[in-house]
C-alpha cells in the first residue's frame, strides 16, 4: 500500500460486474493493487446489487439506461481535485464505456477489466458503440476469457480501443494451473498496466 503521505496521482471510479458486489474478493484485490500505484479507487454498488444484498437474494441487473444513470450520478459527485478515470469489472466496464460523457466532467479514459464482448458461446456482440467512443477505452482481457478470447479478437480492432492481454487468464483473471501463475499476480499485472496508461495520459496533458 502507498504511504499516506504520498498524494494519489489519479482517481478511478470502479464499477462491479453483474454478479458480484463492489467488495467482492476480485474487486478488493484490484482496488488494493491500484492503490499500490497511487490511484485512488472509488467503488459503489448499483441499486439492484444493493437491493440484492439487503434482501439476501440474487437479482438481475437493471436495464442499461438505469445503470448508466447511476454511474453518471457517481461521476457527478466526485471532487475535481484529481485527474479522473472511470471503468469497471465486466458489466461495470461496459456501462462505463457506454456513457455519454459531457466535456465538463473531464474524464480522461475508461478501463474495462474483462470486457463482456459477447455471452459465452453466443454470437451476440456488445461492441456496436465502440465506433462512437469519445475517449480511449483500455480493455484488460484474459486470453481465454469465454466472453471474448484472444483467438476471437486477434483480427478485430477499433480506433479508440486498446487491448492488453493477460496470459492464460479467464474472465476473473484466474490462470490455468499449467501457467504457473496465480490470480493475484494477474490482477496486479492489470493494475500495473492501468497505472502505466494513466502515467502516459497525465504526462501528455502537461
UniProtKB/TrEMBL annotation:
Location of the KANL3/Tex30 alpha/beta hydrolase-like domain: 9-198
Q: Where is the signal peptide?
A: none
Which Pfam families is this protein grouped with? Abhydrolase_11
The domain of life for this entry's organism is Bacteria
Ranges that cross the membrane: none
Name it: KANL3/Tex30 alpha/beta hydrolase-like domain-containing protein
Protein's organism: Arsukibacterium tuosuense
Amino acid at each position: 500500500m502507498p504511504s499516506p503521505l504520498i498524494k494519489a496521482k489519479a482517481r478511478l471510479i470502479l464499477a462491479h460486474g453483474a454478479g458480484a458486489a463492489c467488495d467482492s474478493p476480485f474487486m478488493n484485490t484490484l482496488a488494493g493493487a491500484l492503490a499500490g500505484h497511487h490511484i485512488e479507487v472509488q467503488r459503489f454498488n448499483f441499486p439492484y446489487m444493493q437491493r440484492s444484498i439487503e434482501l439476501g437474494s440474487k437479482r438481475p441487473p437493471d436495464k442499461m439506461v438505469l445503470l448508466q444513470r447511476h454511474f453518471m450520478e457517481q461521476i457527478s459527485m466526485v471532487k475535481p481535485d484529481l485527474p479522473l478515470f472511470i471503468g469497471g469489472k465486466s458489466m461495470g466496464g461496459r456501462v462505463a464505456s457506454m456513457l455519454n460523457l459531457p466535456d465538463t466532467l473531464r474524464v480522461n479514459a475508461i478501463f474495462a477489466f474483462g470486457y463482456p464482448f459477447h455471452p459465452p458461446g453466443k454470437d451476440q456482440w456488445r461492441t456496436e458503440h465502440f465506433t462512437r467512443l469519445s475517449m480511449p477505452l483500455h480493455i484488460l482481457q484474459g486470453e481465454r476469457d469465454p466472453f471474448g478470447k484472444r483467438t476471437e479478437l486477434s483480427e478485430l480492432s477499433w480506433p479508440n480501443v486498446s487491448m492488453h492481454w493477460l496470459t492464460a487468464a479467464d474472465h476473473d483473471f484466474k490462470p490455468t494451473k499449467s501457467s504457473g501463475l496465480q490470480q493475484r499476480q494477474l490482477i496486479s499485472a492489470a493494475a500495473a498496466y492501468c497505472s502505466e496508461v494513466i502515467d502516459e495520459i497525465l504526462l501528455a496533458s502537461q
